[in-house]
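Hello,

I think I submitted the phosphoric acid mono(formamide)ester job twice by accident. Can you confirm which output corresponds to this input? Input:
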Amino acid sequence: MKQFISAHDVQNIPALIRKALDYKSNPWKDETLGKRKRIGCLFLNPSMRTRLSTQVAAQQLGMETVIFNVGNEGWSLEFEEGAIMNGTTVEHVKDAAPIMGNYFDILAIRTFPGLKDREADYGEHIIKQFIQYAGIPVLSLESATLHPLQSLTDLITITESWQATNSRLAEINMPLPKPKVVLTWAPHVKALPQCVANSFAQWVNAWGEADLVITHPKGYELAEEFTQGATIEYDQEKALKDADFVYVKNWSAYSPYSSMPPFGGDWMLTNEKIGQTCNAKVMHCLPVRRNIELSDEILDGPNSIITQEASNRVWAAQAVISSLLQ
Ligand code: CP
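Support: Only one job matched these inputs. Its output is below.
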């Protein structure tokens, strides 16, 4: 693997999931793979899980991690080609990225979308320039349109949970039925990026081992390039029927970009709604706004596998860093 920006960078998703689950069984099995190698983690935006899990994963591979909070500690970076830098930006990415390429063996970057200019965000203007100028493998810690480490984690979590549900078939190596996975929009107080939802749809479709239904109010359609292969159902109740997994996430509209169109009905997931599913496991990438995006009763109840999901971030990161090193 040369870079990790989207599902398209992975040749064999099931093999990468197996690799991650192998690391979960034996975290230190490649503890010298990254000896005398360094990963630089650049944060242009905040993070808790991604930052910590990437550090833990790199450490378990024997790598050294350098964290750089560009957003509030570094020089303000310029990304426009030909910019006359007489404003607030101090250093061009063309000058900064090659230096980082010399300091590190892998460059990991978190950069959120501006949510103002759809073309710039969906062109992945920022991460693409780091790829162009750094000269070393680039690992996305979430970019303007995608969150691949989160999505790989989600597939790992669905895989292990589905194997546990179907343990008798799994034990005798029989093929498991495809689970029904529902990605449901949920309310939020502010406009959030579409990254997690885009990425989840892209990865589940590329994986091909689950039936994906996406449900949201009219006006919250995601970009078709990511949802192709999924069923779109505007009626949340219908969508949830017989679901095995429910992935909850808010996102703002793709068109008009980053708007929050008014919606009717109550879209927050409750125990009553879970009653329509096949005792579905509930997932969320976190952080979550309690009792806005997801109810206490779901988050604190038996159907939530959200802590297990967040814990699995380590194994996704370890499998990907290991693949980039190899
Ligand atoms: N899910 C996720 O990416 O969490 P952080 O923003 O805390 O890294």
